[in-house]
Specification:
Shape: globular
Number of domains: 2
CATH class of the largest domain: Alpha Beta
Radius of gyration: 17 Å
Structural class: alpha/beta
CATH architecture of the largest domain: 3-Layer(aba) Sandwich
Oligomer: single chain
Number of strands: 7
Order of helices and strands: HHEHHEHHEEHEEHE
């Protein structure tokens, strides 16, 4: 998508979801459609399958699931603005927190033409006036998590993430798009905690765009 097409989508008067001519200028959605997003109240946003405090901005349901799919697989890069706006409904991190985007593999970046979480992290860093630390790394190209069972997801990411030693005296906020079993987040946390004498010394938490909440969550 070229610059002209991107600007047209941003400034055209039609909402990207309902298509009515009532979109807020500079936004992709009208206020009604944004209000219909399956956002979670913060006291119901915690993902209990993750070993550190982790919270989801929304449930993985319509239209968040379709927006994310369009963003990742149909080159709708302009949706990074909207998706980062949804994550920003979670509480503002403390000053000095480092944003740690969950990395994509080199093959995925080549396939899409962009690193989807890094683009979102850039927007959140500007919104929250925070720095990005790109210390996580994918060490291979694994099958897509959504195609695997729960046990397969844990095995799939067990050796797929590595990290550099984090900067001292900083809180790290991992950013990811979707959490289902928590396998990817837990793998990232373990990698980061491995640089500390005690896991409890690592100040790590996580924000994700959406989580598949179950009745037990």
């Amino acid at each position: 998508m070229n610059l002209t097409q991107t600007l047209h989508k941003l400034w055209a008067p039609y909402c990207a979801l309902c298509r009515f001519e009532n979109k807020v200028p500079g936004k992709l959605l009208c206020t009604g459609c944004f209000g219909d997003m399956p956002l979670r109240d913060f006291d119901e946003a915690q993902i209990h399958s993750v070993s550190v405090p982790a919270f989801a901005a929304a449930s993985y349901a319509y239209p968040v699931d379709q927006l994310l799919h369009s963003y990742k697989y149909h080159n709708q890069v302009q949706l990074a603005d909207l998706l980062s706006e949804l994550i920003a409904t979670l509480p503002r991190p403390r000053a000095g927190t480092l944003l740690v985007p969950m990395p994509s593999s080199t093959a995925r970046i080549k396939e899409r033409g962009f690193d989807h979480m890094d683009l979102i992290a850039q927007r959140l860093a500007k919104h929250w006036d925070l720095q990005i630390w790109r210390g996580l790394k994918r060490t291979g190209h694994a099958p897509k998590q959504k195609t695997l069972s729960r046990s397969e997801r844990h095995a799939n990411v067990a050796n797929q993430l590595s990290s550099r030693a984090p900067p001292l005296n900083h809180t790290l906020l991992i950013l990811d798009d979707v959490s289902t079993t928590g396998a990817t987040l837990n793998a990232a946390v373990r990698s980061l905690q491995g640089h500390f004498a005690k896991a409890s010394d690592a100040r790590v938490f996580a924000y994700v765009l959406a989580h598949e909440f179950k009745h037990s969550d």
